[in-house]
Amino acid sequence: MMLNMSLTNSPAPFAVYVHWPFCLSKCPYCDFNSHVRHGGYDEARYVRAVEAELAATAQRVPGRTVSTIFFGGGTPSLMQPSSVQAILDAIGKHWSIAPDVEVTLEANPTSVEATRFRGYRSAGVNRVSLGVQALDDASLKELGRLHTAQEALDAVAVARSIFERYSFDLIYARPRQTPEAWATELKRAIAEAAEHLSLYQLTIEQGTRFFDLYKAGKLVVPDDDLGRDLYDMTQQVCADAGLPAYEISNHARPGAECRHNLVYWRGHDYAGVGPGAHGRLTLDGRRYATETEKRPESWLMRVEASGTGLIVDEKLTPAESADEYLLMGLRLVEGIDPQRFTSIAGRTLDPKRISILQGEGAVETTADGRLRVTQSGFPVLDAVVADLAA
Ligand SMILES: C[S@@+](CC[C@H](N)C(=O)[O-])C[C@H]1O[C@@H](n2cnc3c(N)ncnc32)[C@H](O)[C@@H]1O
Ligand code: SF4
Fold first, then answer.
1. How many angstroms does the Cα of residue 26 sit away from the middle of ligand 2?
2. What is the pLDDT of residues 345-368, one digit of tens each?
3. Closest ligand 1 atom number to CA of residue 205
4. Closest by alpha carbon to 76, among 65, 87, 67, 89?
5. Hey, whose CA ends up nearest to atom 9 of ligand 1?
């Protein structure tokens, strides 16, 4: 009873996402909002603009307690530690910070970037997420990465010596990758991982160099069947090593999940600042979707002129919010709370559709009444969500 009371009274988590849009080079598979500026850019000016956006956001949602902060990119590890410090100070000026706040910074695993890790730690970062991508030099070259496998592993070792928590990303289902080669690589990665790994299947995104090569028949990636085998093997190898999936592409020791990303997937509020950042804010009981201008220079001009780079600030309808709750929540192994869906949507999930999906083995209901996607349903997650949302 006491426990229930305290859970009910604890404030909903509130996250802050800071987007740093610059990279040293553009990877051919990447469609994130990342930009190469050979002529350089004025870092201090961008940091001041991020501070201005934080101030504008705090005016709209004052009085929150920040539970997680995430510097994503682009390549936030190109930032000077003093810039990270300034942004964290600004966040602390506008909101209270939870004593156990999780502060993650996404880093590229080059030796130059690793030299800044200690400075990030002093600034208040307590978790890093490294984009290792592959542990094989030929693949790294094909992926357009600027580091070797050894350099990435050295950066992981530096991270391990400085931060309490670290994670790294790998991309699998790469051209010519066999299940045997992936299993060997994954086991090597697990030996280097502590508590968390993000394992993404290579997706060919429109507008990327890989997309053009793929369309021209010059890049061949595993077909659906092989992709499925690679996915199933990934689940098995990670679960056997004590790193089960808690989300479709994320694995952690129980309790070591990325709390920031859980805020997105569990449908809580987050402020998004920096070029091309998305946010979700609840104001007077209604949820707003926010989005800022993507192009760094245009974003900067907007913020300097008006204090914010917002180009989307849209009140979501209950149906839109509920669909989003499904879309995000069903990515999680814990699934969704159907009652919460009902309270957001003003309608219940269709029991007939649920029972058809259950019959197909794609979803299941847990003992405590949650609805979740099964392991065999995850590879067809988009179809499951579309079916339930319709
Ligand atoms: C914002 S990005 C990268 C962060 C950092 N700049 C880096 O490259 O290490 C986050 C992660 O998404 C993954 N990713 C990006 N594009 C992808 C794609 N087309 N397919 C699969 N994974 C992708 C990569 O693993 C990457 O580390
Ligand atoms: S994968 Fe990372 S380094 Fe490469 S372009 Fe995307 S954001 Fe930049």
1. 6
2. 999 999 999 999 999 999 999 999
3. 19
4. 87
5. 131
